[in-house]
Amino acid sequence: MYLDSAYIAKWYVNELRQSGELTGVFRKHIDSGFWTLVPLTDRLLRRILLLVGGAPPNVYLRAGDAVHLATAQDLGEPEIWSNDRHLLSAAPHFGLTGRSA
Q1: What is the dotted CATH code of the domain comprising 2-99?
Q2: pLDDT digits (tens, 9 = 90+) for 53-64
């Protein structure tokens, strides 16, 4: 399951004043292996460029969304979870099912 970073942040931060304390919790979760972070490699960046260039002109695709969508696709994930309506509407063009809670 691929979760975009804004979706993950909502697990930790409900209000801005909590962010400092919860950043530490997030780092502990990374260290413990609860979250697996995917590095942004040169190969993945090139793949993103190809996918963005091949997207239909009617697809509203922002750079950050393209990174998440291409990464999920590259990992072989069938779905992507997000609260972002633009990312979710672009997901089918990447062969992904967009999900939101």
Answers
A1: 3.40.50
A2: 888 899 998 989
